[in-house]
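Researcher: Structure for this, please.
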Amino acid sequence: MLIVSIHPRAEKELFNIPKKFRDAIIREVESLKKFSHPHQHRQIIKLGGRENRYRLRVGDYRVKMELRDEVVRIYEIKHRQAGY
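Model: Predicted structure, token format:
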């Protein structure tokens, strides 16, 4: 099972998102806890360039995270137009 941790900057970004989308993001992030690896989630894609970096797609938002020893650390949450 994965442990999910949110960086303070990402938490601040999350609370600037409209409630409708924020609830969906929280629901998807919470669902990560039941997996043993991020690739088991259908909306997660490995990011190129750095090892252990992934992206979760939730509607028009992208949640960027990194995996270290069973701990998923969310470091950025952005709208898809600004998230790349």
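Researcher: Any notable elements?
Model: The chain is about 25% helix and 35% strand. The mean pLDDT is 89.
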